[in-house]
Amino acid sequence: MKRRLLSLVLCLLAAPALADTGRVHALLIGVGDYLYLDADLKGPPQDVTLMAETLIARGVDPQAIVALGAQRLPAGTTGGAATRSSILAQMDTLAAHVQPGDTVVFYFSGHGAQAPDTSGDEGGGYDEILLPADAKAWRGAIGMVENALLDDELSEWARGILARGVRLVGIIDACHSATGFRAMGGAGVARTLDAAALGLPDDAPSASGLPASADTDALEGDFVFLYSSQSDQRSFEYPYGDGSVWHGEFTLRLADVLTHAPEASWAQVLGAATEAMQQGPARQQPEGEGPLLAAKVFGTGLAEARLAVTQGGLDAGFLHGLAVGAEVALYAQAAGGAPLGSAIVTGVEARRALLSDAPAEARFAEIIAAPPPPPLRLAAPVVADDADYSLWLAALPPAAPGSADLVPVLTGGQVALTRADGVLDPEGPGSTPRIRPDPGETEAEATARVLDQAAHALRLRSTLAGGPAQARRLTAQPVLEVRADRRPGLSSGQTCGTPGALQPLAEGQALGDCDQVFLTVTNTSGKDQDITILYLAADFTISAIWPTRQLVNRLAAGETLRSGLQITPGTAPAQEEVWVIAVPAEPAAPRNDLTVLATPETTRSLGAAAGPAAQWLSSRLTDDAEAARTRGFSLKPPAFTLIRKQLPIALSPPN
Fold first, then answer.
1. Are both 160 and 267 inside the same structural domain?
2. Are residues 216 and 327 in the same domain?
3. pLDDT digit string (tens) for 237-272?
4. Shortest CA distance to 138 belongs to which of 206, 198, 81?
5. Is residue 655 part of a domain?
6. Which residue pairs, CB below 8 angstroms and at least 24 apart, start in 204-208?
7. What pLDDT was estimated at residue 231?
8. Residue 173 lies in a domain
9. 471 and 454, same domain (yes or no)
10. pLDDT in tens, 94-129
11. Domains in the chain: how many in total?
């Protein structure tokens, strides 16, 4: 079960509240004995017992744990059959009794699969399903796999729990698709069923012929989901010891880390479990997503995720925010433990960094100090009128000799930062960004803040757009197809009304107040790509459009995602950009989330509380997309692909 397990789509919310004030409840499900399918597994009943024992060892009240399908029930826990009706009943009971501040752990060990989607919410035409003990084959009369647990049902349940202020931890040790896989030898057993085993007909109805027009509601709240493998991998179980004990590989390693790393974050737990699995017999790369990845397990505060160290260097580079001169602490494991020492980053490539004197036993690193960025070069200020600019002039740094990045123009009682050509407001009145103090800020504080944003934005633009990274192969099709659409906005002051019909956004077409812009991104490369979408505003702020809240951003070959934004009323006319960055997914490697490149404290949206005039919009659809254009060519596959979309902002909404 992967990205669509709980219908995860883009939403931009405030940072999660992490205070640990409530009770932990757990619904643990293990399906080993299938009543109707020839698909029995040995590990899940023992997995459930192990997870229950692990939670109890971490202080969870046994009476708050329901373990369905367990081989043995720890004292105080509640058992039951792992049938569909029993699972749904326990889900309903949980939803009725949890209180704001509580945490719910949903764990499933067993078979996963795919079945044709008839609801129209799956871009690929298939639902991901979990198979309870009483699951049966495809039943044409009802158009589904009988007694399966659909991702749509999990999504609805999760949304209701999260809306009440309850945290949700989802852990899935199952696989959802066998497409494109080869059978593995050895003693391992894959936890997946293919279409033939479920009796899926070739002509089963699906959503592939439905119009791609329905938007899925965003999943909001505090959650973290851990998956046992990537979408193109199987999840395995193995015998251990004398062969009488079987466990899912992911469950076994996860439980071990949860037992021995009491202060770790969910991201660190996932990293440590992954590290242990890489030493095992199967090539299986777990995945995680959600805003609670950085939160400590069942605790308060945040913890840093660690970077992998291989061959004396870091498996991360300037795409992940690293720079020459950064200092990192080195560790032997992914979570916990004392540092082995520190090292300095001596060289940086797109996804690789060199370290000085890293000991052989170092396997992970945390960034502890970043080098000072190169200074922003300002020209001598130009005074355009006779207003009093003494405080602004004192706040501006000395002019740099030679060529400059920006020219300060003092006009109308403010400081405008023009491009190097010194032209003021080239797109219309107010289009050149101004330095404006926030409430309580002095001129000096506002100047320092805006110049830091400008320095970061200009460095990022130079790094991504100036090099060969956006090149593509001469003989290959484009890596991505990107299409831009627009819904004309209706505004009255600071309020947006119902937008108009969706229509293609012509190249260079100006946008106005309340216009909604959607990007449809299709992976046409034949290989999984990790997608990041950034919004570069004219005021030098950089916002992350996709992914947000640490959601999975891996787009499988042929898959499509759709994300977008809404122009806030009163936005000054300007030339702004959306950048779509695709990084090829390496086999059995963690995903590349480049939202670290965005300005951390800045967002184009004012948050959900500000209403539709300031909300990010997103959905997953299957629209056709126009061919992407990239600059430059190379016979060598690129480190990443960059596609830029210009978004001119008009003085007023176009008709």
1. yes
2. no
3. 888 766 778 888 899 889 988 888 888 889 889 888
4. 198
5. no
6. 204/115, 204/116, 204/138, 204/140, 204/143, 205/116, 205/118, 205/143, 206/116, 206/117, 206/118, 206/125, 206/126, 207/116, 207/117, 207/118, 207/119, 207/120, 207/121, 207/122, 207/125, 208/125, 208/622
7. 66
8. yes
9. no
10. 999 999 999 999 999 998 776 555 544 444 445 677
11. 4
